[in-house]
Recover the amino acids of this structure.
């Protein structure tokens, strides 16, 4: 079972190699997610799980970004990118997606790229997203979705315990159903990344 400690240890350990290994496969998803986000001038954006800060270069200049990550190693890399390659003001902190230190109704836009698969309790994280989002806020989540193909589902069953045990990510969750449970509106899903292994899920927080 994936745990908070295993997640932190894994991503602290591999933070120096993250860009080299994952950027070629996951960068398009981040870029496309911000294109779909379409933040308006002066808006407040929350990025959950900023990782090493690979998305910073895609934000427009006239917004304010608040980002956090659970791994200090990843966050250290993000701070460097915030200073060197960000077009807009970026404030960073170390935080748990399952318990955010923000007041209710704080953000106009929220993005979480490749995050909910590494959260021990995705439902807590989704509940927090709805709590800190302002009514009518737009949310973009880039995530692995359970495969409906029977063959791929068997593969997931085989590899899920391995990935979860080392704190890399978990494959077992039903994100669309979870979002509907909390009242997400206008849910749209499109495939992204290498072999379409990930999907961009966009929705609006109810008024």
């Amino acid at each position: 079972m994936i745990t908070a400690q295993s997640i932190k240890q894994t991503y602290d350990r591999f933070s120096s190699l993250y860009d080299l290994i994952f950027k070629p496969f996951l960068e398009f998803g981040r870029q496309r997610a911000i294109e779909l986000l379409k933040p308006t001038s002066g808006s407040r954006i929350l990025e959950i799980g900023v990782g090493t800060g690979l998305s910073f270069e895609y934000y427009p200049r006239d917004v304010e970004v608040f980002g956090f990550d659970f791994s200090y190693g990843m966050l250290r890399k993000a701070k460097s990118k915030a200073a060197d390659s960000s077009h807009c003001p970026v404030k960073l902190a170390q935080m748990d997606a399952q318990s955010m230190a923000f007041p209710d109704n704080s953000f106009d836009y929220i993005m979480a790229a490749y995050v909910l698969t590494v959260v021990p309790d995705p439902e807590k994280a989704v509940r927090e997203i709805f709590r800190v989002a302002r009514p009518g806020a737009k949310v973009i989540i880039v995530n692995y979705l359970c495969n409906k193909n029977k063959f791929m589902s068997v593969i997931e069953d085989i590899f899920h315990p391995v990935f979860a045990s080392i704190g890399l990510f978990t494959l077992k969750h039903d994100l669309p159903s979870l979002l509907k449970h909390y009242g997400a509106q206008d849910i749209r899903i499109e495939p992204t990344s290498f072999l379409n292994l990930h999907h961009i899920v966009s929705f609006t927080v109810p008024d």
